[in-house]
Amino acid sequence: MKINWKLLIICIAIPLAVGGISALVTHEAMESFSSLNQPPLSPPPSLFPVVWSILFTLMGIASYLVCTSGAQREEIRGALWLYGIQLLINFLWTIIFFNFAMYTFAFLWILMLLAFVIANTVSFYKIRKSAGLLLLPYVAWIIFAGYLNFMISVLN
């Protein structure tokens, strides 16, 4: 299979851009986050950008695999819509959680995000198994982030 490097770079750049903009928008709120009571298993703050960069890169590769799968155009379009929606929900979660400090609402929001990420993972898997498998670490991380979000809402 020949790699379309331009498309691959675009596919990876899209989620990385969403993550980068999200980081810029929430940067100042991160200082107040460190003063919150943290739940058990909270990773060090320096781990979050590393994990998110990896996850966004995997998302981009997965979307590339779907785009180049040769599946029906409508099937690809539907999967990419789910992908776009979950990216938007992800972006908005960071604002709700960090900027607005609405921890309980953010927890409900992350549950919605999890539902869309799972739906996105299934849709990618149906088109190209490897694309769906690349999203499994994202599913796991959202579950873990949901735990952290819930516990922060309880502890603060």
Write structural notes for this entry.
- The structure is a single chain.
- This protein has one domain (5-34, 44-155): TspO/MBR protein (Ferritin, Up-down Bundle), CATH 1.20.1260.
- Helix 1 runs antiparallel to helix 3 (47-67) and helix 5 runs antiparallel to helix 7 (136-155).
- It has 156 residues and is mainly alpha-helical.
- The termini are far apart.
- It has helices at residues 5-26, 29-33, 47-67, 73-99, 103-127, 129-134, 136-155.
- It has 7 helices and no strands.
Give a short summary of the structure.
The chain has 156 residues and is mainly alpha-helical.
Task: Jot down its keywords.
156 residues, mainly alpha, Ferritin
Number of strands: 0
Q: Which class do the helix and strand fractions yield?
A: mainly alpha
Helix content: over 70%
Please state roughly what percent of the residues sit in beta strands, choosing from under 5%, 5-15%, 15-25%, 25-35%, 35-45% or over 45%.
under 5%
- Report the CATH C-level class: Mainly Alpha
Shape: elongated
Distance between the termini: 51 Å
Uncertain segments are none
Specify the biggest β-sheet.
none
Q: Total domains, how many?
A: 1
CATH superfamily: TspO/MBR protein
Total DSSP helices: 7
Helices and strands, in order, run as HHHHHHH
Topology:
Layout: H1 5-26, H2 29-33, H3 47-67, H4 73-99, H5 103-127, H6 129-134, H7 136-155
Helix pairs in contact: 1-3, 1-4, 4-5, 5-7
